[in-house]
Amino acid sequence: MTKRIGNKHEAQHRGKDERLDIRRTNIAREAVKQATARAKYRNQVRNQPPMSLSAAA
Predict the structure, then answer these.
(1) How far apart are CA 19 and CA 6, in angstroms?
(2) Which of 6, 15, 29, 37 has the fewest CB within 10 Å, making it most exposed?
(3) pTM of the complete model beyond 0.85
């Protein structure tokens, strides 16, 4: 459960600039997640188990 201020939800007490800042940080965080996931599966052959890098040597 999220923290409440009195009877209202916490998000209702945020200013416009604060909400915008939170939105920007969330979008940036999600972009980082997507970039790491794309890097993890780049150059991968479909329907094949992931190749281990140690076995290639």
Answers:
(1) 20
(2) 6
(3) no
Who contacts 44 (Cβ-Cβ below 8 Å, separation ≥6)? Answer: 50
Backbone φ and ψ for 46, nearest 5 degrees, come out as -65, 150
pLDDT tens series, the chain, 57 aa: 566 667 777 777 788 999 999 999 999 999 999 999 888 877 777 777 766 655 554
**Separation of alpha carbons 12 and 21, rounded Å:** 15
d(CA 39, CA 32): 11
Judge whether 16 and 9 are in contact, CB under 8 Å.
no
- Three-state helix/strand/coil letters over 2-44: CCEECCEEHHHHCCHHHHHHHHHHHHHHHHHHHHHHHHHHCCC
